[in-house]
């Protein structure tokens, strides 16, 4: 028997809606096997859920029934059969098998229980990530991630942005050389990109409004719950916009993501037992100076200091939804951020509780000012000559931001550890699988 015109492959979720006697093909991995005399009930999982198939010794014969008897859990199978009503109270429809084929036989014991019934540490799960993804709760995270990425792209397309791809092997450091992975590029010194910053600024000269979703790299020997060495960043840059206008773009992106996840991933949210965070526009906005004033009611912080995790946690208890902290001190922001005055920059961070999701602002668009800012931060303008040269061609005023997609997934899925939201995370201790 082969998959011809008489039989069609249906996902587990679709079988519930099929009329009786429908000829179908079920493919997936075996989760449970329950023999009962001349009958054998097998639960098969695929990416949409569970289906029950039934082997009847009288129908499949001794040879066919032996295939079921020799099955191992997690083996990948293909079953041809007909849909029928189930006698079980927990299963409405099932498939009476006419032929069962083992496409790939598993070899127990397994390093983790992919059903999630037996607890496994995150490290053990990540060591067997491909198997871990068969856990419905883990799979739910990455189905939501798919919706998030799709939603982001659709929002930027509607707003007239052009999607771009910038180099990940670079010859100069966008942030001045800190926390970069160094490598040898033939006979030259090179780095893995930690940001598309300089490239996306240059692209506003012609394409005007650009965005990119890509992996970036930071050589930080940090083992916190919110840092990894390879992360997915959403970056945008737009000519003729100021910091407040691109903050509005960030609001629209986040609100559309939440709306689309609510629409498309209700089942996954139920599996994860989480509720989406609230996001009402406009997001709350407080200046850095206002934030310092609030924090100084609890502990003394000097104006001009960067905010530490404990400070952000204190603010997060006050602002429980998405909010912006804007106009940070100039001295603690990158050289490409434009000054508001001698002390302040035209910058902002998008926050959710204590978690920084995005950082951005209005950029310097004058070459002389940019050289001055480089020198102020003890960087050599000669190291940025290729970038500075583009300002001679006419650089429009522009603004932008970068948002951590993995961190946004943490907020949506209720996960405390960023590694839960990345398929194969990389941190100082993990290079495989």
Overall average pLDDT: 95
CATH topological fold name of the largest domain? BirA Bifunctional Protein, domain 2
How many domains make up the 3D coordinates?
A: 2
The spatial strand order of the largest sheet comes to: 7-11-12-17-16-15-14-13
Distance between the termini: 38 Å
Q: Structural class, from secondary structure content?
A: alpha+beta
| Count of helix runs | 13
The general outline is elongated
Beta fraction: 25-35%
What is the correct CATH architecture of the largest domain? 2-Layer Sandwich
Largest sheet: 8 strands, mixed
Q: Mind telling me the CATH superfamily name of the largest domain?
A: Bira Bifunctional Protein, Domain 2
Helix content range of the residues, please?
Answer: 25-40%
Rg calc: 27 Å
**CATH class (first level) name of the largest domain:** Alpha Beta
Main features:
BirA Bifunctional Protein, domain 2, OB fold (Dihydrolipoamide Acetyltransferase, E2P), eight-stranded mixed sheet, five-stranded mixed barrel, 13 helices, 2 domains, 433 residues, single chain
Report on the architecture of this protein:
- The protein has 433 residues and is of the alpha+beta class.
- It folds into two domains: 8-104, Nucleic acid-binding proteins (OB fold (Dihydrolipoamide Acetyltransferase, E2P), Beta Barrel), CATH 2.40.50; 130-421, BirA Bifunctional Protein, domain 2 (2-Layer Sandwich), CATH 3.30.930.
- Helices cover 30% and strands 27% of the residues.
- The protein is built from 13 helices and 17 strands.
- The protein has helices spanning 12-15, 57-69, 122-127, 129-132, 136-158, 197-203, 243-264, 266-272, 288-295, 309-318, 367-376, 385-390, 405-413; strands at residues 8-9, 23-36, 39-46, 49-56, 76-85, 93-104, 162-163, 169-170, 182-185, 188-192, 209-217, 230-239, 284-287, 322-326, 347-352, 355-362, 398-404.
- Strands 7-11-12-17-16-15-14-13 form an eight-stranded mixed β-sheet, with helices on both faces.
- The chain is elongated, with a radius of gyration of 27 Å.
- It starts with 7 loop residues before the first strand and ends in a 20-residue tail after the last helix.
